[in-house]
Pyridoxal phosphate-dependent aminotransferase (Pseudotabrizicola alkalilacus), 732 residues
Amino acid sequence: MTRFLTPHAATLPSVVPFTGPEALERQMGQTFRARLGANESLFGPSPAAIAAMKEAVEGVWMYADPESHELKQALARHHGVTPQHIVVGGGIDGLLGLLCRLTLEQGVPVVTSLGAYPTFNFHVTGFGGQLLRVPYRGAHEDPQALLDTARQTGARLIYLANPDNPMGSHHTGAVIEDMVAHLPDHSLLVLDEAYADLAPEGTIPTIHPDHPQVIRLRTFSKGYGMAGARVGYAIARPELAQAFDKVRDHFGMNRVAQIGALAALADQGWLADVQRRVRAARDRVSRIAEANGLRALPSATNFVTVDCGRDGDHARAVLRETVARGVFIRMPGVAPLDRCIRISLGDDAALDVLEEVLPQAIAAAG
Amino acid sequence: MTRFLTPHAATLPSVVPFTGPEALERQMGQTFRARLGANESLFGPSPAAIAAMKEAVEGVWMYADPESHELKQALARHHGVTPQHIVVGGGIDGLLGLLCRLTLEQGVPVVTSLGAYPTFNFHVTGFGGQLLRVPYRGAHEDPQALLDTARQTGARLIYLANPDNPMGSHHTGAVIEDMVAHLPDHSLLVLDEAYADLAPEGTIPTIHPDHPQVIRLRTFSKGYGMAGARVGYAIARPELAQAFDKVRDHFGMNRVAQIGALAALADQGWLADVQRRVRAARDRVSRIAEANGLRALPSATNFVTVDCGRDGDHARAVLRETVARGVFIRMPGVAPLDRCIRISLGDDAALDVLEEVLPQAIAAAG
């Protein structure tokens, strides 16, 4: 180990929270026939956003506006808040990292669900926080258990994704509102709404933007189809939003992405169309799963989690055989969620491949 | 202040190290006629890189390869090192932040030059490091003083930019090699080579890539003309390079930028052309300065630092009047360097505007 690392850094593993599909392709020596593992949007971004990004490439010699002024104005209008309530950053991943940096130090307790988003855990551990994990209740994160554990441990952060990844489940907005009403004073709710744009009506809670104990996270990676652009944003009361200026990489936004996000936000018609296509793709993946004797869980996201009906070893075998046949999918990392595989939604061409491959993979998994 | 911040975060100011030109434009209510303040490359990226980025926009629904495999392979070939020596990140700014995170904790001493790159200081302070600053010797950073102070204080990091920003000066590679040979055991040299691609022959030191006490930082923002893309890289021994995997945002790279950087690197002919145009522009800016009774300092970069011949207040007045006339420039932040203004190099159209405006600005500054 290099002598210059802090004692804490020295303890951290050099890990990638997820292996990228490109790395798998290099290992296999072939490209995937269908890329259904990273909850990317195969429906892509709005044509208007694509056009805006292509035009913006000509100006990539310029740094982006470090204040993301126009994008913050537009997001504020979109959400009925002020620009001072908005933090723009490099995807939700980047914002979670900054939030952990602002709030955590060695040993500070943080509560999340056992099997929930690993990148959040990566950042918590990376900043020395003490991770506490409560089990899911079936396919759902358990607000009451999160609250109870937070109260018992004095947790500073409570992470909850609604809709949830990797299970695709959701709580109603009313459930989240009730959770917010019962937050212990010492806890900030980190409400990851990455999939909010694809969720059924009634999923999004009403929370006053000045609420001192909630930060909401949104992204252009899912519904807006711009995962490779790295644009996410947080909504929080101005006091907390402004704190990100203490630590963020001010000139770190990609200019093309910043301009593309603005155009994507303006094309709500495209988003509505994606929502329709996502619903249709959910139905088709559910039918494919059922045709193979598997149970598709209800999805509020752009992926469908499929219960393979046995244990983690079996689901891992199904996943392995599916991947080996050129279909990139992922699965929850820990029991008991790891009885499932997770299939991102795609266009018909990709789902045709899935339909062809899944029976073979299940047969091979035995 | 929000109650959830760490005690250290609570002490940090919510600052932008530099005000962006867009913010200035909003304040002034007009756009700049010439954008010569951020050391961006008005010559832009290679047409091949632009074409690659436009094509890559179509695939922006996909996350980038978290390992930046192809780019690391290409950079390794370019520099005659292995891919394990390369870290790809969101510009040098982003990499400096990660490096500070890996190496600094409360009170760890770090040495830099008084007036050198503020974003490095921002990160050092942000991670609790104790900044020690040694004066420039004239227009040059002072390797001996940096070493002496590092030795006296037990500094963990020594920051040196070669060529230097904001003065545009450079040391020969031999000077840097000598500095490396005399590093105290406890110090890691952070060698910021952002402007290396534009420096005169003989500027780049020969340092063994496995040297345990040096990390070199390079960027696609300057010579390659892709500041808005946010692609930088570090060269360090594999042990240190791999440590970045402990803390980096693995899926944080913009896919379009990653692909664009690969294409830019492949077009060394374009870079050579930019180098020629930069040299010509240096000469022209020097002539413009001299025609106005100012002294242009020799430049090894894509900007020319111009000594306004009096004190900081005078240079600030010249800057203010230049900016007010629609030419965005910047200047060093601290005395005695702040007797200068800093003019990024541009194409003929931009320098025509500079030539028109500078005499008016000097007259107005009085």
